[in-house]
Design brief:
Elements lengths: L3 H13 L22 E5 L2 E4 L4 E4 L2 H4 L8 H11 L10 H13 L5 E5 L2 H16 L3 E5 L9 H4 L10 H5 L1 E4 L4 H10 L4 E6 L9 H13 L3 E5 L12 H5 L5 E4 L10 E5 L1 H4 L22 H16 L2 H22 L6 E4 L6 E4 L8 H13 L2 E2 L11 H24 L19
Parallel strand pairs: 3-13, 5-6, 5-7, 7-8, 8-9
Antiparallel strand pairs: 1-2, 2-3, 4-10, 9-10, 11-12
Helix pairs in contact: 3-12, 4-12, 8-9, 13-15, 14-15
The structure holds pyridoxal-5'-phosphate.
């Protein structure tokens, strides 16, 4: 594989950009040495790197591109909006139209406020909950890996440099599918917790008792329930994972799958709470999401077209079905290569991830790197196994062929030692304290 242009750009990018990329999850430390570092073009689920190599991909813009790269209907809608200008001194009608569309699809959305990033809307939900309840403490689900780039969340991770201790101390944790852990928090901090923040579902499905318990305990203790649907929204269901599992939050946040990769996110919730961020009440005001680019018309047009596309085409069904096809094929490969317990797939069919373990069955970044290296060599980039509406049967079959070859190498590396097969340093977790 020719990689000369990638190598040149890598040198230039590290000289000018801390980390070499504007998103950690896209950085060099996440990928093997032998692979493309920069992508220039995408169409459907295929991408091309700066050196002209073509790949099928399963990262899809960090799960934001659900329909496919350069998806014509969405791009045309954005382009049409751009012809009339994208940012004015007063709101554009599409701000109302798009908010009405979101409210029509998500049952708990009585009011809607847009921003550009998932982090911003989830942080806004926390701020609103704090203002609404007059409390400062925030309780988050410990098993859910990411809610926001902001201090209230990053302060709870091991990369907490630069975040004051008093801020870190205000966020406490409970455990998924463990109602007792929430009861204990409310007992320990009576009258102090403003909100519970969690995803409805990640890899482990929720129990009915847990969801009912979360809702009951938050109401009983005067805290708001915030559901982060940045990944699950418009992927599990057009009404979010809250529609699948029948749970009604006070506030919830959407992003990623809303606009096929265009930058837009939404905070939605009950009128009673959301109105605190408005200008028609006698209470103290909450400064809720007000940014220069919050109402850019082309992103809203992209979101509107994406949501309409979900309404008229079987997108959600296709994501599930193609994810299941991939999952089923991988399970057969794992059996045929005798890799049970070493390599496997987790999660919802529309949001699959995989694990890699070494010969002692311990989680292994080295084996993750080897797998990435071997599938990239065979024309597939798969940091996760997230399908889009553009992943055809043929794409999935080609991916399974690539995995077949890669897993044969994996099996040999388990017995001969990985050093015989791995080229260069292993990848590293995104969230780690030191470089
Ligand atoms: C569950 C969840 N919430 C929030 C965010 C933050 O979204 P953004 O990157 O758009 O700020 C992410 C990002 O990956 C996420 O996965």
């Amino acid at each position: 594989m020719k990689l000369d242009k990638s190598r040149d750009l890598q040198q230039r990018s590290h000289a000018i950009i801390p980390g070499g990329a504007h998103t950690y999850a896209k950085g060099d430390d996440q990928y093997p040495v032998e692979g493309p570092a920069f992508l220039v073009r995408g169409k459907g689920c295929h991408v091309w790197d700066v050196d002209g190599n073509e790949f099928i991909e399963y990262g899809m813009g960090l799960r934001s591109v659900t329909l496919g790269h350069a998806f014509t209907a969405v791009n045309e809608a954005a382009w049409r909006a751009m012809q009339n200008g994208i940012n004015f001194t007063r709101p554009a009608p599409i701000e109302v139209e798009c908010a009405e569309k979101v409210a029509s699809l998500i049952k708990s959305a009585e009011m809607v406020k847009f921003a550009k990033n998932g982090s911003d809307v989830t942080t806004a939900a926390v701020k609103l909950a704090r203002a609404f309840t007059g409390r400062e403490r925030v309780a988050i689900c410990a098993e859910h890996p990411f809610f926001s780039v902001d201090d209230w969340f990053i302060g709870t991770t091991i990369i907490n440099a630069g975040i004051p201790k008093p801020v870190r101390d205000l966020t406490v944790t409970f455990h998924y599918n463990d109602v007792g852990s929430i009861e204990r928090l409310f007992d320990r901090y009576p009258g102090e917790i403003a909100c519970l923040v969690m995803e409805v579902e990640r890899n482990e499905p929720p129990t009915r008792a847990f969801l009912d318990g979360v809702r009951y305990l938050s109401r009983k203790n005067g805290a708001l329930l915030i559901l982060d649907e940045i990944i699950t929204g418009f992927r599990w269901h057009i009404g979010g994972a809250q529609a699948v599992h029948g749970i009604e939050p006070d506030l919830s946040t959407f992003g990623k799958a809303m606009a096929n990769g265009f930058s837009i996110a939404a905070l939605v919730g009950s009128k009673e709470v959301m109105e605190a961020g408005g200008i028609d009440h006698d209470r103290e005001r909450v400064f809720l999401l007000s940014t220069t680019y919050g109402g850019e018309t082309h992103c809203l047009a992209a979101a509107l077209e994406t949501m309409r596309f979900y309404e008229r085409e079987p997108v959600i069904e296709t994501l599930r079905c193609q994810g299941e096809r991939l999952l089923c094929g991988i399970e057969q490969l794992v059996t045929s290569h005798r890799l049970e317990g070493y390599f496997g797939v987790d999660g919802h069919p529309a949001n699959l991830t995989y694990y890699t373990r070494d010969a002692d069955r311990r989680p292994s970044q080295q084996f993750r790197t080897l797998l990435l290296q071997e599938i990239i060599r065979r024309g597939v980039i798969a940091p996760s196994l997230v399908v889009s509406y553009s992943h055809s049967d043929e794409d999935i079959d080609r991916t399974l062929e690539a995995l077949d070859g890669a897993l044969a190498v994996y099996q040999r590396a388990l017995s001969d030692g990985i050093d015989h097969y791995l080229m260069g340093r292993p990848v590293k977790p995104v969230v780690r304290r030191y470089c």
